[in-house]
Amino acid sequence: MGYAHVAGVDEVGRGCLAGPVVAAAVVLREEHYVAGVADSKVLTAEDRDALFGPILEAAVTWSVAVVEAPEIDRINIHRASLQAMRQAVGQLAPLPDAVLVDGFRIPDLAIPQRGIVKGDRRCAAIAAASIVAKVTRDRLMQALDAQDPRYGFARHKGYATAEHLEAVARYGYSAVHRRSFRPPSLFD
Question: Domains, the chain, ranges and CATH?
Answer without folding.
Answer: 6-139 (3.30.420.10)
